[in-house]
Amino acid sequence: MIAVLNNPSPTLEVKGSSGYSKSFKKMIDECLRKDPTKRPTADELLKHDFFKKAKGPDYIVQSLISKLPPLSERRKSKGLSAIGRNGLIFLVLRQHGLVAEEDEAAVCSSLQFFIKHPHPMVFEVKKSNEAVADKKALIGFAALSIDQ
Question: Fewer C-beta within 10 Å: the chain N or C terminus?
Fold first, then answer.
């Protein structure tokens, strides 16, 4: 406990080409400040360069989903290669800094499970005293589904 108080705030380790952008690292460092009063609020985070430069949902549809083969073909493929290191989804995620190479196994495993067992999933993505989460309006939530 004393080490937590005496040591500097935690930060992302950047060794060589870590895959993290400067903007992302800066945002994480701001969020990990020890003094909670010095951490950015949800509104301040939304104004951060990292989120300002983020692509919108249309980009995801155009870049990822629309280029996928039909679900029936994906289910037939052995090992679901569409999500492997050289597959389209993982490649696009890596190119845009949305996932680090060391997270490949976890990302691919999650995608494989979701493709094998498609069902709508809703994730809470934001907890804030200022905003009330609303699952119907998806405020503070993200939804993911694959139609069969």
Answer: N
